[in-house]
Write a structure and sequence with these properties.
The chain has strands spanning about 5-10, 15-20, 30, 40, 45, 45-55. It is mainly β. Strand 3 (about 30) and strand 4 (about 40) form a beta hairpin.
Length: about 70
């Protein structure tokens, strides 16, 4: 198993483990933060980035404990 880098969303402070995998550019898709929908980097050179959320971060836009519909 490869080591994961840590990443924190600058908007909502959600925390992610990030893994780099060598992949062709044909599979590029835009990535969004699962907590606040901020854009995330999907590549670093020849590597695709895969994010695994480990913490939700701040409770942005929540009312009565419910998530907003996107």
């Amino acid at each position: 198993m490869t080591d994961a880098d840590k990443f924190q969303c600058p908007i909502c402070d959600a925390q992610y483990d990030v893994v780099r995998v060598e992949a062709p550019r044909t599979h590029d898709k835009p990535l969004l933060c699962l907590s606040c929908a901020a854009p995330l980097h999907n590549r670093e050179g020849k590597f695709a980035l895969k994010y695994f959320r480990v913490s939700d971060g701040m409770e942005l836009g929540r009312r009565n404990g419910r998530r907003p519909g996107f």
